[in-house]
Amino acid sequence: MSSDQIGIMGVFDRLDNLLEAIEGLSKIRIPIERVHSPAPNEEIRKKLGMKRSAIRFFTLAGGLFGLVFAYFLCIATASVWEPDVWGKPFTAWVPYSVIAYEWTLLAAVIASFFGVLILARKKRLDPPPLCDPRFTVDRFGIVVTCSRGERKYVLEIFSKAEKIDEVDS
Amino acid sequence: MDLVLALPLSQLTDPLAQLSVASHFRFLGRFGVFYPQPFVLVYGSLPRPGRRAGSSERPEKKLYRLLSFGWRSTQTQWRPFESSYILFSAITVAFVPCVASIVSWDYALTIVPGYHSTIWGPYFMVGALHSGLAMLLTLIIPMRRIYRLEKIITVDVIENIAKILISTAFLMLYDYLVEFFMSWYGSDPTEMMTFKLRAVTGLYPPIFWFVVVSVIAVPFLFSFKSIRTNLSFLFIISIVMNIGMWLERFIIIIGPPAHDWIPYDWGWYWPSLVEWGILGGSISFFFLLFLVYSKTIPTISITETKEELTPPGASEGRAK
């Protein structure tokens, strides 16, 4: 952010007011930094034009990796120890599938977990400068970054906000 | 093979000794430590400590921030959380058969009479479901009163759990009958002796019949609406069922090795005072962890509860 830029946060107690503010901001093309809500909400996501989460690709990639890795692990272990199989096929696919099933699910879970951390951009534990603890309780919020010239338009859009906070860049 | 021959004969008939010498069984069992349930549990709780985190510098607030990975309930956090929550739920369901049956397969793969049966996997799984529901009743009936959760955990919810218990009692009955039937149908004298010692003669039949009554017969009392909606009855029955389920595991695990292939080893096992102490300690430790969890983290998913409500400022019936 350059020094001309400021951050403005509007705290709303009603969903309708928040949706109106999102619409107003998108009309004057002011980029929205974050939108907080105490629970997930479909209407907010529609207004923001958010697409489906890419988390499913993390799950799929993790699952496939687990599947391949499990068979590799079983075959590699059997190759190292060379068990006496008394004429039976050396690679016992059926029992290996049990391990593969577990590894598929395990790796899918771990990949999804880290996928969420990556996609949710959880880089920092401390709250950002503009954040209200009530967002996790019963309040909605929008944080925008705009120039000082755009400030008055943003404040107008945030007119129904319960509280407005500002910070310099 | 050399290792097997080097072991005393009595150890070969001991199921745990068999597990230790049979590398394939050991290999299977060790994967138990990799279960993702802890991840799912921690992950499902993410927004909960986040609600208590705030921006204060107090140590407990910092701890909550750490536990919630800095949760701030933004849309970029909610969206992957929601999607992955569904995925995690599906994966957890897929894991239930593994989690509930893996130990039973370890036992079933041995040659000990009474253990060596393919019914053990589903048997343990149904048992886990049955005792799990009974434990759920034991925990939530006092908890809803202590934490004043009567409006969230309604009597309808508890009544539905009681109805499921009737169906799981049927499944348990089926398992019991199949075990005895297969023993009789197989005509293996050793196997038949194991079941005779479980249900007819010796030290364990009184326990077995108590188990039959408490685990299978008692849940059928829930067929009466007046009983399944009476919380005091439900609480007492759930405790009786829990005791029954513990004793069931006791006789099916302890019974077979008490009279296995080596007559020299035959005897009757009963826990010593020290072993009862360990049991009491483990139960107490469970309740300690449970109380610490309920004290520090909301026991009801606030996110899911809020999703059911109409948001403030939105008209009734609108998308939530």
Describe the structure.
The complex is a heterodimer of chains A (169) and B (320). Chain A has helices spanning 15-27, 42-48, 55-81, 93-119, 151-157; strands at 5-12, 32-36, 140-147, 163-168. In chain A, helix 1 (15-27) runs parallel beside helix 2 (42-48) and helix 3 runs antiparallel to helix 4. Chain A is an alpha+beta fold. In chain A, 48% of the residues lie in helices and 16% in strands. By secondary structure, chain B is mostly helical. Chain B is 72% helix and 0% strand. Chain B has helices spanning 2-6, 9-13, 15-21, 23-30, 37-44, 47-53, 59-67, 75-108, 120-146, 155-186, 189-199, 205-217, 225-228, 231-258, 273-296, 302-308. In chain B, helix 8 (75-108) packs across helix 9 (120-146), helix 9 packs antiparallel against helix 10 and helix 10 (155-186) packs across helix 12. Chain B is elongated. Residues 1-38 of chain B have low confidence and may be disordered. The chains are: A alpha+beta (169), B mainly alpha (320). At the A-B interface, helix 1, strand 2, helix 2, helix 3 and helix 4 of A face helix 4, helix 5, helix 6, helix 7 and helix 8 of B.
Provide the spatial order of strands within the biggest beta sheet of chain A.
Answer: 2-3-1-4
Largest interface, with Cβ-Cβ < 8 Å?
A-B, 62 and 53 residues
Cα distance spanning the termini of chain B: 64 Å
CA radius of gyration of chain B is: 24 Å
Distance between the termini of chain A: 6 Å
Tell me, briefly, the overall form of chain B.
Answer: elongated
Number of strands of chain B: 0
Q: How much is the average pLDDT of chain A?
A: 86
Q: How are helices and strands ordered from N to C of chain B? A: HHHHHHHHHHHHHHHH
Distinct helical segment count of chain B: 16
Which overall shape of chain A is indicated by the principal axes computed on the Cα atoms? rod-shaped
Brief overview:
The complex is a heterodimer of chains A (169) and B (320). Chain A is α+β, with helices and mostly antiparallel strands and 169 residues long.
